[in-house]
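To close the chapter, one final illustration. This time we ask the reader to focus less on the individual chains and more on the assembly as a whole: which components sit near each other, and how the overall shape emerges from the parts.
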Amino acid sequence: MLQVRDGRLQVLLWQRAREPFLGAWSAPGGYLEQDETLEQSIRRHLADKVDVRELEHLEQLETLSDPGRNPRERELATAYLGLAPTDVDPAVPEDTRWHAVSRLPELAFDHRAIVLAGRDRLRAKLSYTNVAFALAPLVFSISELRELYVAALGHEVSATNLQRVLLRRGVLEPTGERREPGRSGGRPAALYRFRTRRLEITDQFAVLRPPA
Amino acid sequence: MLQVRDGRLQVLLWQRAREPFLGAWSAPGGYLEQDETLEQSIRRHLADKVDVRELEHLEQLETLSDPGRNPRERELATAYLGLAPTDVDPAVPEDTRWHAVSRLPELAFDHRAIVLAGRDRLRAKLSYTNVAFALAPLVFSISELRELYVAALGHEVSATNLQRVLLRRGVLEPTGERREPGRSGGRPAALYRFRTRRLEITDQFAVLRPPA
DNA sequence: GGTAGTTTTAGCCTGTGGGGCGAAAACCTC
DNA sequence: GAGGTTTTCGCCCCACAGGCTAAAACTACC
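The assembled structure is written out below.
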């Protein structure tokens, strides 16, 4: 489960209290019940840690099947990528914390690879889909959206280009409202929202590239 | 397992001889052994049907977990996409046949969705990767490659644009050889090969779009 | 109330790369 | 050699991302 917090892309992890990998950090998850789908299962286990109503997007990543991935017993895992908007801060239990994806602690099993795969999937989809709706609040200014992109992509993004691209693609629409400027002044920012809040793929594969 | 045969994208299916879905067609696969990965397993089961040395590319699609997907018992399945080059024609057993993806027979379980997902994945990746190497022979002319793209994408592709795009991206390289023209004459075609035969992602997401 | 500073927005210009078209090249057959 | 066929090359256009600069719209300070 990823979220942009304090201007950085962070991942929700909990600390294992049992072997194997005692003390290492782990992505939320657990065993599949007989009568549920994988998605229902991940939502159920996630609900033990956070309020899952905050989850704006959930998609399957990959199923890991290396016989040695769990040293104790044979175990398969299907990894999911979950996204939550920046403006929520769900309560989490004692053993659970947000960690910057750029500075991961020691992770249990193959969870490090999973988290990085989730980050990469997110980065790719920011370029050719409207996934950003799952990271952003309902209403936002372009510069706020820009900060989300910077945090998630890990490189600078021009607010000018971002606005033009997303408006031309019809991903964003203006709300007509504007944000009161802060103490330091400045032109009041126009507010926007995502036209749809379900995943849509842009037919143009054009991309916001890192600056040259 | 997909292959372009007779100018159409086709999929290898076998006909079930047992309930459930007796008589319906099914994608190759089977149960996972204790000490193998999913990829090893799919290769093993595929080997029952065809010579798997022909398989040029194999990638995971999705894990299906609907509790009702198998009416008899709870069963998960991880779908894989396999690609074979056009110039091979592996022997297949009696119960196994190639079917045009555009005209699928009645498929068992959720295999119809799996095959279509594989087709869509292939189509997407043809645009921003070099996957076509897995569909093409080692050496080919641009117009032969064009036919593969047409079959897989399901729409016209300009040989001119295809050549320019793939050469500029550095995906193709000329062999220096040329193909003798056929009976009907015509300028001899220059022959090309893929510069690398492992999956590579183009950093430009530009795409061969359907003609307007 | 004017000036300086800040933030956002709009306009312009450029470069890159895909798409289309037509002509040239290189072969065949008759 | 003429006409047909297939492939390749060159040219032009257009869409779009990217960068830069100026304008707009505000606050704060003198």
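Residues 205-212 of chain B have pLDDT under 50 and may be disordered. The helical segments of chain B are 38-47, 111-128, 142-153, 159-168. With these observations in hand, you are ready for the problems at the end of the chapter.
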